[in-house]
Amino acid sequence: MSNKFRNQEANAHGHGYLPGLAIDAVIFGFHDNQLKVLLLTYKNTGLFALPGGFVHDTEDVNEAARRVLFDRTGLTNIFLDQFYVFGDKSRHDTAPLKAIMAVRGVTPPDDHWLLKRFVSVGYYALVDFTKAIPTPDSISDSCDWFGLDNLPELMQDHNLIIKKALETLQANLDQKLIGFNLLTDDFTMGDLQSLYETILNKKLIRAAFQRKILGLGILERTAKKWTGGAHKAPYLYRFISEK
Amino acid sequence: MSNKFRNQEANAHGHGYLPGLAIDAVIFGFHDNQLKVLLLTYKNTGLFALPGGFVHDTEDVNEAARRVLFDRTGLTNIFLDQFYVFGDKSRHDTAPLKAIMAVRGVTPPDDHWLLKRFVSVGYYALVDFTKAIPTPDSISDSCDWFGLDNLPELMQDHNLIIKKALETLQANLDQKLIGFNLLTDDFTMGDLQSLYETILNKKLIRAAFQRKILGLGILERTAKKWTGGAHKAPYLYRFISEK
DNA sequence: ATCTTATTGTATCATTTTGTTACAATAGTA
DNA sequence: TACTATTGTAACAAAATGATACAATAAGAT
User: Fold this and answer.
1) Which nucleotides of D are covered by protein (CB under 7 A)?
2) What is the pLDDT of residue A233?
3) Residue A37 near residue A135, CB atoms below 8 Å
4) Strand C: which nucleotides have any atom within 7 A of a protein Cβ?
5) Could you give all domains of chain B from N- to C-terminal order, each with its CATH number?
6) What is the pLDDT of residue B104?
7) How many Å apart are A24 CA and D30 C1'?
């Protein structure tokens, strides 16, 4: 849990939500040749957390994840996938939540539903950095992008969740051809290669990379991009989903 | 939910369990050149279900899955992994559970905890068919192996769960080198190839398969196996986990 | 205009991996 | 002792990947 108690006034006892179940979303973006994730910050507590939420008893768990993603970015039709369930009992840590509530002048009873043990379903999303509009929820002060190698200490096991999300992304990058979701609609081959190199954290061979990607037959060439650089202008490519 | 209400007398209201959360385990075995899964059967109802259970509030979710696996097979130290969370609200179907209870002379109230909506964490396990001892739980009549292409209609979405588990197994087979877990300690190259062919559902080229597997350097040759066949005796191999 | 420079797109060849065929070794049976 | 089916592996072909090279070209410098 973290920012997930929107409507807590309307659900003082957690009614209307599936009990003990939370969603945590690792929302990846790519900017300045860096992978970034969306984090919420809580004023006066120095706490940072992943966007998350609870599951209404009228919605699917996957729907709840899409709702969280939409609420924090304004985006729909985004690549979003489960990657792990975090269910260790050692996750149960009421301190950060109490701190957040204390700053807001609330002292919850020890049996408050938000202080119970939660199992969290981890999701990761790949969004176009330029299209997302980071939006804090009702109890956080801001929602911002943080570089992956520049992360603050996060509450609970959220650093671990991000680590596992990244590992999943790395493992799935070639298999599922999902990288494009992190770029704008049109991109150069150089953009794509930088993205892959950043995610996989290793250099790729330019000629081989280009040959491989084009050989997949999933890109169409749209135009040339004049970068202003003193060199040949690269082509722009676009992902074509179906044939 | 399905067979997961052991100790229901001791937990008439589901106390001691994480609410609304279940485990479903797809336990794979390999025998007679066929992939098999363990299923529970419920007498006089014609119902079949995956082994499953609930999570004690004193244990990790992964621990609960290991416990389920141990209770149904007697095995520990088994390959076991999460693969998906089944959390659609459409899963909520009280009919089969009521039928099972009815046969046992119980008519639960509509607000019985077992009749509430459950979110289920899907696990898949790979076990040595010869070592597992299928064991029914307290409310099922038997626990048996069923061939994957010979499955009965299962309760709720359990057929879907198996389908998804198989897809995960197929996708991970080469990546994680987990196939050996389905064989006995010593096996021939032919055994291993049959296993791969069965899981992937396609023919593999014998010479290339053998070269590839041996090239991984993860097998040691132990002895020869006299099969009684009128031909050269194959070697036995064994998986070596660490170097 | 022409020269210079950096980057792109692609061709070419080398290397590695995988697909295919072939064949010697051999444990039974006839 | 010959025959047969299967195993282990070599040998070669084809495909994929790694590495290098080079023509094309957009802009700034001359």
Assistant:
1) 3-11, 17-21, 23-28
2) 87
3) no
4) 4-12, 18-22, 24-29
5) 17-176 (3.90.79.10), 185-239 (1.10.10.10)
6) 85
7) 60
